[in-house]
Structure to design on (224 residues):
């Protein structure tokens, strides 16, 4: 089955630690996205990538970093500079490089602070 | 479980009723709109989309209506079922990225 796989489902971070969230897709989609979701809030865009080896900051990129070395993979690193990292993180992908295609989502990673 | 629904507007309906969920969008330049359903602990699931050259689009048990004059989008669910209980988001775009609304929680009682 084609889809988007996020791992791990739950992740705990200690103070001063960087953690990396995995996102893999086998849909042959060009574009991939990372969102953050807080309780009672809509999704906020962290980073997106429309093509391999290129990515752009979203609305809340500070304290996060990404890479896009392969079409299938778009890992997100939550750095120690992100002072409020506790949230539900969602990865998505879509055909083409514009926004006029539906984005398909993984089932998220819940990050908590120890 | 997932607490995405905290403090969201809530629509409570009985099984078999029709549900209407509304969304006001902000950008008059937006020309593509999507409705998503998000169940507890899961990622959003695509329901239906509509482009700005249309006023109405129908899917299976769902209809999306677009009123560009007042920047309003609605999702109608016919014969609502308990499995429809979830948070529903609208999203809009005019460029390369989607902007999401905060969502509405739909509660369906048997």
């Amino acid at each position: 089955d084609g889809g988007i796989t996020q791992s791990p489902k739950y992740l705990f971070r200690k103070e001063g630690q960087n953690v990396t969230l995995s996102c893999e897709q086998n849909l042959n989609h060009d574009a991939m996205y990372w969102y953050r979701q807080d309780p009672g809030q809509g999704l906020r865009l962290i980073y997106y990538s429309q093509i391999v080896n290129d990515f752009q900051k979203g609305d809340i990129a500070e304290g996060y970093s990404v890479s896009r070395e392969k079409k299938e993979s778009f890992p997100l690193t939550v750095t120690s500079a992100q002072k409020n990292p506790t949230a539900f993180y969602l990865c998505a992908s879509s055909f083409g490089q514009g926004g006029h295609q539906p984005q398909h989502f993984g089932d998220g990673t819940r990050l908590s602070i120890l | 479980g997932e607490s995405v629904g905290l403090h969201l507007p809530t629509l409570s309906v009985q099984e078999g009723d029709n549900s209407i969920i509304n969304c006001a969008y902000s950008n008059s330049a937006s020309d593509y709109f999507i409705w998503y359903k998000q169940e507890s602990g899961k990622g959003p699931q695509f329901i239906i989309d509509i482009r700005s050259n249309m006023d109405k689009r129908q899917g299976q048990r769902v209809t999306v209506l677009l009123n560009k004059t007042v920047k309003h989008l609605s999702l109608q669910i016919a014969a609502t079922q308990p499995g429809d209980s979830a948070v529903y988001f609208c999203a809009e775009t005019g460029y390369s990225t989607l902007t999401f609304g905060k969502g509405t929680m739909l509660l369906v009682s048997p």
